[in-house]
Design a protein that fits this description.
By secondary structure, this protein is α+β, with helices and mostly antiparallel strands. It has 18 helices and 7 strands. It has a 4-stranded mixed sheet with strand order 3-4-5-6, with helices on one face. It has a 3-stranded antiparallel sheet with strand order 2-1-7. It is globular.
Length: about 325
């Protein structure tokens, strides 16, 4: 039977192994089989294996061969990766594969973005790695988030919900957004966050998410967090069914999944330039999403409309 890990069982296991032989906690090929389950559970529950070690009260230096980072060493490592493949400097890749560099950059520069910009690299050229286009034309960084938006779009068409919004500002005093807000048939708001926040709020480097959760609770918002489990569309759909008390069909699942379009980085950057030329400034994400639907010459030809008419349509959406 597969072991079910909890915060307490992970910390207890780490302390037990440390007492027996601390070298067994080191992440290497020799220990891979021995700590594989513990390592994966730590990443899922604490955000990282390193964080689980810290939470157990063990000094990092006892387990990890800690590199003494400086601004110069960080710059040298970033430039080294940049020369090999610029895409490997993306936030998600660095966080997953270069944790030491990522943590040092956050500690010394304040954020990964500031570390990259310190190296005279335009962060915009590496921050856009993938974009996914939903059925209704909205672009998302996450494929699963795009899938969820498609589900809500079909629920709206089927009149099972009254409306839905995405990336909604939570409050005026903080720069927080909620992934989705659903309006049920009684016009009641249901606030839904997808995935990352559940694990991130266990991470002291993401305290803003703790605050947001507390704010939801204090304001007595009806909020839910959709957890990603083994990147399963079916599992996410089941969670939506539980939240909205619906029975969404497999047909809707398949449509929502199969209609996701992929927008690659080069095409996205090319489209940004098209929008920029039209509106005379670098577009915000919202401006790109709205203007981008109409700015491409092929779309304009298909609509058979003049640019002045298209601008009026855009103003209504903005």
């Amino acid at each position: 039977m597969k072991k079910k890990w909890t915060e307490n069982s992970i910390l207890k296991k780490i302390k037990k192994i440390y007492k027996k032989d601390k070298s067994l906690l080191k992440v290497n090929n020799k220990n891979k089989k021995y700590i594989s389950s513990l390592y994966n559970a730590s990443r899922k529950i604490f955000g990282s294996y390193r964080m689980a070690i810290i939470k157990s009260g063990i000094k990092e230096d006892d387990i990890f061969d800690r590199k003494r980072w400086t601004k110069l060493k960080i710059k040298k490592q970033i430039n080294k990766i940049y020369k090999v493949d610029i895409n490997k400097l993306s936030f998600s890749n660095i966080k997953n594969n270069e944790m030491g560099l990522f943590m040092a950059s956050s500690r010394i520069f304040g954020s990964w973005k500031k570390a990259v910009e310190f190296c005279n690299i335009n962060y915009k050229t590496i921050s856009i790695t993938k974009k996914y286009i939903s059925t209704f034309g909205k672009t998302f960084d996450s494929r699963m988030e795009c899938f969820i938006s498609n589900i809500f779009h079909y629920l709206l068409l089927d009149k099972k919900i009254k409306n839905f919004k995405y990336h909604v500002k939570v409050c005026s005093s903080k720069n927080w957004t909620c992934d989705f807000v659903i309006f049920d048939k009684n016009d009641k708001k249901i606030w839904i966050e997808y995935d990352g926040m559940l694990s991130l709020r266990k991470n002291p480097y993401q305290e803003a998410n703790n605050e947001k959760i507390n704010y939801y609770t204090q304001q007595k918002y009806q909020y839910y967090i959709i957890e990603e489990k083994a990147y399963s569309f079916t599992n996410v759909l089941n969670q939506i069914n539980d939240i909205l008390k619906l029975n969404i069909s497999k047909c809707t699942l398949d449509k929502s999944k199969n209609e996701i379009q992929f927008l690659n980085k080069d095409l996205y950057l090319k489209d940004v330039v098209v929008v920029q030329n039209k509106i005379g400034k670098y577009p915000t994400c919202k401006e790109y999403d709205i203007y981008g639907k109409y700015c491409s010459s092929s779309v304009t030809r298909n609509l058979n409309m003049k640019w002045s008419e298209i601008k009026n349509m855009i103003k209504r959406e903005l």
